[in-house]
Design brief:
The structure is a homodimer. Chain A is α+β, with helices and mostly antiparallel strands. Chain A has 3 domains: about 190 residues, Aldehyde oxidase/xanthine dehydrogenase, a/b hammerhead (Aldehyde Oxidoreductase, domain 3); about 325 residues, Aldehyde oxidase/xanthine dehydrogenase, molybdopterin binding domain (Aldehyde Oxidoreductase, domain 4, 2-Layer Sandwich); about 150 residues, Aldehyde Oxidoreductase, domain 4 (2-Layer Sandwich), CATH 3.30.365. Helix content of chain A is about 30%, strand content about 25%. The first copy, chain A, has an 8-stranded mixed sheet, sandwiched between helices. A 5-stranded mixed sheet of chain A has the order 7-15-14-13-8. In chain A, strands 16-25-26-27 form a 4-stranded mixed sheet, with helices on both faces. In chain A, α6 links the parallel β10 and β11. In chain A, α6 crosses α7, α11 runs parallel beside α19 and α18 packs across α19. Chain A is globular, with a radius of gyration of 27 Å. Chains A and B meet through α6, β17, α17 and β24 of A and α6, β17, α17 and β24 of B.
Chain lengths: ~750, ~750
């Protein structure tokens, strides 16, 4: 009774009234404040550090440098443990470092009684460096004799390759046309509103409690445990409401240091809260990619082959390492499964801010190249862009050449058709033919995407759910799933409602995650949450309902088979009223009958061994002002096949939020790093241009509902994908309007000016 | 491997280092402070209240009076819901009241930004009363025409009667001797160190969170729900560490008001913290009893009958009502099951502080009368006090004449024998024969007790346990049991250790109770916790071990029957080393194998439908200084049959703590209420004389270990009983030393002087 309804987010009230607790709302008496001494060069080594004057300042409790931390290298990437050692993340971090890999690297820390004192102390620290040339471009990074940013790495954080779907050299030879180009995407920032902040204390026995806005509470335990050489259960993680994740919180950035500090300070509460500048430059960003791509097509529009050669830049530390490039590239096989595909990818260290997971994890970069290259191919053979894609995109039954898994649900063709109609493609195509000259031009663009629902088979996919019938007949839902604003708690309630037969309003879910209590789930990433959760919730809800009906049968002497739950009341199966017993009366009996019953609960841990791709596309209608080099979006829509839509309004929210982020990456955003010092110029919201409500156009959002049979409720990934296709669609629309193919991002007036001048337009 | 070992309390480290969090350590930014306007008369009605000046004070956020609260009467007693309406607690409270029943009754409340402002505001409130005569003695309370303290009550909060074990009038006629006397016990206070304090807020959606040091988190939900007409799940209760309960926290005293305030104030955090004076006079106390008792004996020492007529005073509100008197009186049937027993009891309202649950719940009062009366009987027939008891106390196989249940374990005879030997009874008896004259006299005393292990069949006995295998192989134990300092968490860990086969150090239990997460258990009272828990833990541990072995079998291909867990390692059954797989490796596989496994958990809710009596006795050796009317305890011992002793050191701690409390009630303590105003004179630790470390003698403690077959680990009640028998034993020793039978408490110099003068000794 809950699926498909636009019930309000279950945390709407507390968020709208300002009551919702975020990390900084957790205050403890006597909590200390820690601040990091950060490097002011991008590449080098600390020759000496003078922290005595800081330590001597009244109100400074303690200081620690790279000399005081454990020599245990650890990885910060928020991946579940992989039993295959080959899949271990690169352990290239220490809690504090003497070797500087990027501007802002953590060298030392001061702990003081107040923020103000900590800041004053920071200014008293003197650091002497031995500086090296910052390495920021693939050429420099890979130049023979280039200094290794991490010893023994050859400046490579990882590489991979695959071929599938046929013999690529042969397929390219057989093609009528070959399209080759180089594409570049830039480093952008998540810009989640809430800065990174952690409160650490040891009030719970000998254990460390971390209050932190993370996407991966359980993984934080493991990584902190590793960094400090503690058993994982010694680390308790509490995740309050989260002011945006987008992948920036799928890295364990501050937690090991915070845990180290409280451990060193006898368990005293310590808070580390980054300011906005630190959040911009010293957390994680999106990997910039350099992609050389070749597409082969036949005259009739058949795609024959894609050859992709990608270089990804991870910055000073590996973080998610080569995983982002590898994951992104695999998308080609899902979206266009009938061509031959050849992929080579490398991920390089650079003396730049660290890149990590960011919404859609490599897909925006790779699919930018693919969807630009496909557009160029369609134009080359003179075929309509939509028709070209309709001819080549995946259909149900296609087998992914890389994973060898058949597609069980696929609505991309219907998405293209729906989007084409919505934007008025054919009519506008005709109309805009008159707008290809002069200072104001108009054009249409389209781009497709696909994305997985989780990480299987690369990582384990596990979700845990506990359901409890409360004494008042309400149901408590405890899910290990991590709500970070994406709405997973709300759809979880809807799923339970659907299967148990109880109104959503009678299901209560605590939004604060606590690893001490909640069932195990690896976290919110890879658009996995509602997909992986669906099977666990279905199983748990069915089991729970059975237990309730069994108890009802016992106290009413009506056979279980003849009972059902409707609208929160146990009824005769197939009937509605008057009902046999309310859940409240049943619960009361189960709890308080002196000889029978007990608390009715269900505790399910479920592994998902499937990974359903979702699909979709962006259509965009733009006006380009040639003299001003400006793009105006007249209309834009994303059409998604995410299987069954669990909650249309929150789904729409996800899509529109992602589209805005995609428009930002397309038109405005780039984290600008000084090539000499490694300093991030635009490390504030005044300088970093992300689109505001005034900048984004009305964003259309439509769904093509398929039913994904591997999912408990037919649903597939939705959280990340909306960000993927707007940039190539906008680039393709500009190409349509102006005839200029721009193969880089962002499409700012400055970028357009360069390309328009080269094309002779300005 | 854990049972019977004196492992350190699992919360020892955090308590010893001061890290442990108590209610007042939970601070929230912007929390308001509430203080109650309390009546300054004991009986009457508020004619008018002027709270305007308080409201007008800067920093006062709000004020509320009896006019602003819901008109929903509720009961404060912390009993589980009883499905039999006849067992419902008396609902005689409102959140704030216009009708005054005791000095300190809550009339209004001021809420301010700080403690200081709230206190200032309080002093600006003007109340006009219509005052009535305070009713404090049974004669006045029951006098014809006496004003009803609660309308329609006839000033009776409850009454009950039973006869069992034979025809009492006939048995009395058949006796050779009849001993009749009146006994009086006084109102004493729990004196738990931590005052009552509650923090209420609504940060979790539309729900109310209460942080409170309660013994009954789940029952708080129900009572607050009732008082505010909210579904129970809307109330979340968090119980941090508790600075002593003793029954004072088995009442829901502050929580409804705190919940009301945050609800009225838009969810803002509000704290109500009582000061010591309020804790003494306005929380709960022990019911004073007036007991008329007759014992019939034959010349050979055979006990024929006990006739008990008890009047209990509950003060201004019913609280636990007549339950205390009824529970206390039933103890006679368990301790001396072969005589006929006739009981009548009444519980009266009075304009005195409210009495509620207090350690041993009526048994100290009733058994004081019984054990004094038995002593007098033994002396009357010239039989040794120990021999007389050995002849009459219960033995295994005896059937309780009231409950009709056979005794499955009973070590009271062995306790008497062990105590007699420990104190050197026979030798001292001979020696002290020379000390019955002159100013310094010496004597020996003995008294027995019995107590139940829970409340069954009066109330439901339910315990819940969840066990989780952590990814690092450690076990998390989540028990609904409520740790209030008694050590139940520690023995719970020992039980799991015993059955699963894992060292206690590898079992982790979170001490903070949270009703949102922990399995259901009604709380810490009735010495039920480790008994009721034992069966739930045994069941859960067995199930959990089976699940682990099943998984081990799957991944090792060794049959389950050939596997066992020893010292935290899965081994070949019957062998120890080298072991098949560590729990750490097994857990890692279960969590992270991509196709099989999952989080291994067990979730058990168990009802106990037995109630095993425990037994024991006190032996005491005293010197009485006749001129100074002072008693000096030379030696004292409690010997307990509590079944299997789970942890000898913590068990000894419980016994010695209880003995100190018993010595306090015997020699020092009385809550002194002004007969005209109802004001408690000695409402501070300077005026209320509880024994300090300097006042208590060395306290012996021995156990007679029986095995109680209805218990998961053979254990029985231990928490409350140590307090019961020291007072009658000391009274009996004074009688032995001086020949003066004093039938009241406390045995202060003032009391002794009155009696000694009457006896012509001074």
């Amino acid at each position: 009774m809950g699926i498909g309804k636009s019930i309000p987010r279950i945390d709407a009230l507390e968020k709208a009234t300002g009551r919702a607790l975020y990390t900084d709302d957790f205050q403890m008496p006597g909590a200390l404040v820690a601040k990091c001494v950060r490097s002011t060069i991008a590449h080098g080594r600390v020759k000496s550090i003078d922290i005595q004057s800081a330590q001597a300042l009244a109100g400074v409790v303690s200081t620690f440098t790279y000399e005081d931390v454990p020599s245990i290298p650890f990885a910060t990437a928020g991946h579940p443990l992989n039993l295959d050692p080959a899949h271990e993340d690169v352990a290239d971090r220490l809690i504090l470092t003497r070797n500087i890999r990027f501007y802002g690297d953590e060298i030392a820390v001061v702990v003081a009684e107040s923020e103000k004192i900590a800041q004053e102390a920071l200014e008293l620290v003197r650091v002497e460096y031995e500086g090296y040339e910052p390495l920021m471009t693939p050429e420099r990074i890979l130049a023979p004799g280039a200094r290794e940013i991490h010893k023994g790495s050859g400046n490579m954080a990882g590489e991979s390759a695959f071929q599938c779907g046929g013999d690529v050299p042969k397929a390219l030879l057989d093609s009528d046309f070959l399209l080759k180009a180089d594409y570049q995407t830039r480093m952008v920032q998540h810009c989640q509103l809430e800065n990174h902040s952690v409160l650490a204390h040891m009030k719970d026995g000998n254990r460390i409690t971390l209050v932190t806005a993370t996407q991966i509470p359980q993984i934080v335990r493991r990584i902190v445990g590793k960094a400090l050489s503690l058993p994982w259960h010694q680390v308790r993680v509490i995740k309050p409401h989260v002011g945006g994740g987008f992948g920036n919180r799928q890295d364990v950035v501050l937690e090991p240091l915070a845990a180290f500090l409280t451990l060193k300070l006898g368990g005293r509460p310590v808070r580390i809260a980054l300011n906005r500048e630190e959040s911009f430059g010293c957390t994680r960003a999106r990997h910039p990619f350099h992609i050389h791509m070749t597409t082969g097509v036949k005259q009739d529009g058949t795609l024959t082959a894609n050859q992709i050669n990608a270089v990804s830049i991870t910055g000073g530390y590996a973080s998610h390492g080569h995983g982002v490039a590898a994951a992104g590239s695999a998308k080609a096989c899902s979206l266009y499964p009938r061509g031959a595909i050849d992929y080579k990818g490398r991920t390089l260290y650079a003396n730049m801010p660290v890149a990590g997971a960011m919404r859609a994890y490599g897909a925006p970069q790779t699919l930018y190249a693919i969807e630009c290259n496909m557009e160029d191919a369609a134009r080359e053979i003179g075929m309509d862009s939509v028709r070209f894609r309709l001819k080549n995109v995946a259909v149900e039954g296609d087998v992914n050449p890389l994973t060898k898994k058949p597609l069980l649900s696929c609505g991309i063709k219907a998405c293209l058709t729906k989007g084409r109609e919505w934007i008025g493609w054919d009519e506008k195509k005709r109309h805009y033919a008159d707008w290809k000259q002069g200072p104001i031009r108009k054009g249409l663009g389209v781009a497709c995407f696909t994305f997985g629902s989780g990480t299987y088979p690369v990582c384990v996919e596990i979700a845990g759910v506990r359901l409890v019938l409360n004494p008042d007949g309400f149901i408590s839902l405890q899910a290990g799933a991590v709500e970070i604003g994406q709405g997973s708690d709300t759809v979880a309630v809807q799923m339970v409602s659907e299967t148990v037969g109880v109104p959503c309003s009678r299901i209560q879910l605590a939004s604060t995650h606590d690893t001490d209590f909640l069932p195990f789930d690896t976290g919110a990433y890879a658009s996995r949450q509602s997909y992986v959760l669906s099977n666990a919730l279905l199983k748990a809800s069915q089991e729970f309902k059975t237990k309730i009906l069994k108890y009802a049968s016992m106290i009413t002497n009506i056979s279980e088979a003849n009972l059902d739950i409707k609208d929160g009341i146990v009824v005769h199966a197939g009937e509605m009223s008057p009902g046999v017993i309310s859940l409240e009366d049943l619960a009361r009996n189960a709890y308080y009958h002196k000889e029978q019953g007990g608390q009715i609960t269900t505790d399910v841990s479920h592994k998902t061994t499937t990974n359903a791709p979702c699909f979709g596309c962006t259509f965009v209608d733009v006006t380009v002002d040639i003299p001003l080099c400006r793009v105006h979006i007249n209309d834009i829509i994303n059409v998604h096949d995410s299987g069954v839509i669990l909650n249309p309004v929150t789904a729409q929210g996800q899509v529109q939020g992602g589209m805005a982020m995609g428009i930002g990456a397309a038109l405005y955003e780039e984290l600008r790093v000084d090539r000499k010092t490694g300093y991030v110029y635009n490390n504030s919201f005044s300088d970093y241009k992300m689109p505001t409500a005034l900048d984004v156009p009305h964003m259309g959002c439509e769904f093509v509902e398929t039913f994904e049979p591997t999912s408990g409720y037919g649903n597939k990934a939705l959280g990340e994908p909306p960000v993927i296709s707007p940039p190539p669609a906008i680039r393709n629309a500009i190409l349509d309007a102006t005839g200029v193919a721009i193969n880089e991002l962002p499409l700012t007036p400055q970028t357009l000016f360069r390309h328009f001048r080269r094309a002779g337009l300005v």
